[in-house]
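Ticket #4471: structure output looks truncated?

Reporter: J.K.
Steps to reproduce: submitted the chain below (213 residues) through the standard prediction queue, then opened the result file.
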Amino acid sequence: MSRKTRALIFLLAAGAAGLLAVSLIGGYSSSVADSYGRLRTVIALTHGLMPGQVITPRVAATSFELRRVPARFVPVATLDDPRRAIGLEPVAPMPAGSYLTEPGLRPPPRPDRARSRMVRGRHAVAISVAGAGALAGPGVVDVLVTSEGDRGHGRTRLAARGVPLISLGQTGQSDAGPGLTEVTLGLSRSQAMELIDAESFARRITVLPRAGG
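Returned output as attached by the reporter:
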């Protein structure tokens, strides 16, 4: 048998072995899929959610992922349509990787009269701040602005005292920079202008919860 003939036989044998392996793998995958049953579309979280964090279209776009999962592994009342979660907030902390379920969500609490009076006459303004990790949800906060000082030392001042925190975005997920959080505050016109301006030139804007707020 010539060297050329042997090489041709080896190539044909290798090709046949490859086709057999593909057939075996395909059959195994099909049998595994059949054993798990039908697949369901579910919403899985790519970022964790916290109570008091209202799910907006932006939150859904950055924190939700549609997956196909065997139905036997899907918790009861798992959502498959992100639109059904818009406007709701988590009942308890939801870590990344968990499924979004209907019982795990609720409408945001309606503002009481005291909070309504507090917000009346103010403007809802969204700004990116540091220190939001200490906030549990809507309440009353103080706003500090740290500007550049002499010789690189920052100077911090109280820019707004006792302002309503209307909503709290996802901690550390602001587009303005790493570690910042987008919050919506109820501000007077002068406070709004000052803090919007501070977002451009200040080193940092920090919010602190007030005792009993």
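Triage note (M.O.): checked the attachment and the full token line is present. The helical segments are 3-36, 57-63, 113-119, 189-201.
Status: closed, working as intended.
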